[in-house]
Amino acid sequence: MTTSSTRMLRALPAAHRERLLRVAREVPIAEGTRLFHEGGRADRFWVVRTGTVTLDMHVPGRRSPVIETIGFDELVGWSWLFPPYVWQLGAVATTPVRAYEFDAPSVRSLCASDPQLGATVGQWVGKVLAHRLQSARTRLLDLYAPYGSGGPR
Question: Rounded distance, CA 103 to CA 89, Å?
Fold first, then answer.
């Protein structure tokens, strides 16, 4: 489960949210739609308004395990912020979704022109990234380690 500090409404001050939302477009995403594949070009990202998206990870010789389920006000995609802008996970809409879709180059440009906005967005995405890496670690250990994740030590 994502913590409240990684949700857009809590992570970004109102003025920064409003600036970002000005460059967003609201999109419907049909259930079963793959938003991106691991290894693909990360040129956009989404914030979920309604519905759910699952994140998965390619595991050679096995079905891709679900790493996390993303819902209301959560960020889908962080790879757009870091070169070489390649998706590190995959994502699929598991229900009908309405989301804000952002063009990554436009947001990177906006952040470059406003260092305070850039720092705030970087902090938000960094928190999301840290959370997702921990979720991936825990999920993969649960699936493939002899004794499961065993929780943090």
Answer: 18
pTM for the model: 0.84
Could you report the per-residue pLDDT of 101-116, keeping only the tens digit for each? Answer: 999 999 999 999 999 9
Q: How far is CA 31 from the centre of its chain?
A: 17
Write down the residue that tokens 């891709």 correspond to. 64
pLDDT tens readout for residues 5-32: 678 888 899 999 999 999 999 999 999 9
Q: Strand, helix or coil at 71?
A: coil
| Total length of the chain | 153
CA 70 – CA 92 distance, rounded (Å)? 10
**Which residue in 130, 1, 4, 107 sits closest to 46, CA to CA?**
107
